[in-house]
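Reading group handout, session on sequence-to-structure problems. Before we discuss, look at one worked example. The prompt was deliberately terse, the way you'd type it at a terminal:

> structure Winged helix-turn-helix transcriptional regulator

The input record follows.
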Amino acid sequence: MLDQTDRKILEELSGNGRMTMKELGARVHLTGQAAASRVARLEEEGFISKYTIEVNQQKLGYSIHAFLYIYTKSISHQPYLAFLDENKKDVVNHYKISGDGCYLMECRFSGNEELDRFLTGLNKHVNYKLSIVIK
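And the output record:
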């Protein structure tokens, strides 16, 4: 069971996973050693599963951020999944969902030509509904 201090630790680490245990302890009113012990326990119990970074995709040249609802044309999804595997550099996240559509895909593209190439290939396997992120 998580107490308020554990929740505050998770909140602080979510904002900055690189802070020192001394800094974390000061923010949650513990010593650095006590904070480190709590973090170790949170990792062991699976509340913290990994540490990561957030990359600025715009600076990397990926100016188009899109979400696609995927509607399969047949009961066999294998050709679609094979297409995804071949084009995984464009796909940020891919989820099998219930509700509107069979899958939800988040993608990044460097420009309209890359987006068009992807959509042309995708349409050979499934139908889709495209939404472009504005801001």
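Points for discussion. First: The first strand starts at residue 64 and ends at 72. Second: The chain is about 40% helix and 20% strand.
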